[in-house]
Amino acid sequence: MRRAASLLIPLTLILLYYGFWFGAVILLVSRYPALTQYLPLGGISDLAASNADSFEPVYTRAERTVLAPTGPLRLGLASIGSLIFTVPVSWVYFITSRTRRIDQSFLQTIMILPVVVTGIAMIVVNSLALAFSLAGVVAAVRFRFTLSQPSDAMYIFVAIGIGLGSGIGALGISGIISLMFVVATLVIWKLEYGKTLSGPFLTMLTRRDAGEDDY
C-alpha cells in the first residue's frame, strides 16, 4: 500500500474550493434575493411544511417542480450544483487510490450519478405513483458492476446522497455531505487508521499482546 503523503496541501486546496462556492452562493443570494426562487435552496423547509402523512397526485407534484416556469432552470442549477460538489469526491478518490491504475468507468459513474439522481429526485419527491414506477424500472434492470474495493461503495453512497439533496432543493445539505465525506476520508487515510493495533490503548481495548497479529 502506498504510504500516505502530506495532507496539508490537498486539504487546503479542497477547503478553498468549498469556500469559494459557498461564498459565491451566499454573495449572490445576499445581493440578489430574487434568485432564491431559481436556486435549489430551502428544500428541507418545503418538505417540513408539506403534509408528510400523504402523497400528492403525480401531476400536482410535477406541476410544482419540473413543469413550473422556473422548473427547468432550477433543475439545471441543481444538476450543476451536484456536479460541483462531486468534483472534490473524485479528487479524494485520486488521492487515496491504492493502485496506480484508476478505474475510469467507476470514476465517471461517480461524476454522473449525482446528476441523474438529482433529476429523478426532483420528479419523484412526494409522489407515491412515481416512486413505485421508478422501483419497477430499477427492478427490470440487471446490474453486473463489481466494485474492486469495498471502500468504493462509499463513493457510490455519497454520490447518491449529493444527488438526493440537490434533487429536493437542499443543495446546502449536499455540500455538507460532500465536505464531511472528503475531510473524514482524507484524515482517516492519512492516519492509516486500522493498519496496525499498536499502542497501550489499543492493546488494552482489544486485549491483544504486543506483536500479536491474530486473535
Explained architecture:
It contains 9 helices and no strands. It has 215 residues and is mainly α. The protein has one domain.
Topology record:
Elements lengths: L7 H24 L11 H7 L8 H7 L6 H26 L7 H21 L3 H13 L11 H16 L3 H21 L8 H7 L9
Helix pairs in contact: 1-8, 4-5, 4-7, 4-8, 5-7, 7-8
Write a brief structural summary.
This protein is mostly helical and 215 residues long. It has 9 helices and no strands.
Proportion in helices: 55-70%
Name the shape in a single word.
Answer: globular
Main beta-sheet annotation: none
How many domains make up the 3D coordinates?
1
- Strand elements, count: 0
β-sheet strand percentage = under 5%
> Which residue ranges are poorly predicted, with pLDDT under 50 across at least 5 consecutive positions?
none
* Quaternary structure annotation: single chain
- Derived from helix and strand composition plus strand pairing, the structural class reads mainly alpha
CA distance, first residue to last residue: 23 Å
Number of DSSP helices?
9
What attributes characterize this protein structure?
215 residues, mainly alpha, 9 helices, 0% strand
